[in-house]
Amino acid sequence: xxxxxxxxxxxxxxxxxxxxxxxxxxxxxxxxxxxxxxxxxxxxxxxxxxxxxxxxxxxxxxxxxxxxxxxxxxxxxxxxxxxxxxxxxxxxxxxxxxxxxxxxxxxxxxxxxxxxxxxxxxxxxxxxxxxxxxxxxxxxxxxxxxxxxxxxxxxxxxxxxxxxxxxxxxxxxxxxxxxxxxxxxxxxxxxxxxxxxxxxxxxxxxxxxxxxxxxxxxxxxxxxxxxxxxxxxxxxxxxxxxxxxxxxxxxxxxxxxxxxxxxxxxxxxxxxxxxxxxxxxxxxxxxxxxxxxxxxxxxxxxxxxxxxxxxxxxxxxxxxxxxxxxxxxxxxxxxxxxxxxxxxxxxxxxxxxxxxxxxxxxxxxxxxxxxxxxxxxxxxxxxxxxxxxxxxxxxx
Length: 396
What we know:
Shape: globular
Helix content: 55-70%
Number of helices: 15
Structural class: mainly alpha
Largest sheet: 3 strands, antiparallel
Mean pLDDT: 82
Strand content: under 5%
Strand order of the largest sheet: 1-2-3
Number of strands: 3
Oligomer: single chain
């Protein structure tokens, strides 16, 4: 393997290009998200923020600019350097999570401490970074375990401990939905890596009673479940957003109400710029707009998973699979919640929902996925020759 360097040390004529289809799908999803904020939040922004109809759009663009910096960094950085800084990323996410419990730095809202104060009135949600950090950590750990020749030396118990420690600290922030989502993605990576599930068995046996217990500890969670089972209950409470979202989706019809309507003609959804932004898109663009969104999302997932499955570098393959799964599954869960197929969870819609933490981390993961797509292209080019080895992936 060539000597380590921060950037790929390779002649430009041999430097593999990223998957342009994947790149286009990322830009399309991001563009649709900005467009949706523009057409759906102006009316609400004018009422709340001193006649500034572009308040939410401007904030999202600022955070997107930061996100594209990380996007570019992860896209061009040597994968071996990324592996070297995984411990830094994991430790940073841990420190940021702890800081949320310190009153001067952390922000408490509705009893939850999920955010940190940032300059210029911005906030940061460390649990978003935890998703990316844990994917990198698990991918790196599983790859190292696979490299051990003696099966008796393989041990994923330390990995399980670190993984559930982060789940617990996110849960302590009263972010139940995110902790549950992180658990699901982590178990998915365990399955893909071929790790022995006996390490997860003791924890999985406690999973169902633990989830039930966490739901019963908070009255609003019980109300959400009851409201999901019986939509006619809590119509002016926890079900208000859900019922308004359903009316918005129905009002969109096939063709939509047109650009710029933004939930103004029917009962508005409180804070539509966040978890229920998909309802605004559905009302404005109709069923055809919904099809366009899912076509772009499925195309992104297809190209991303194809990259993961075709990459012969285990770490890159595992991490890419995890990053794509986070974006894709989170999108599916959010749209199911908006349509009433799942109880309200607080899971945001990647690229669409207003949230600096979400868009920054999402774009960073997309940069990593695009970097990994070079691996796929190299394999395709090398298929005409001999079998490719990990050493030949020195461009990473």
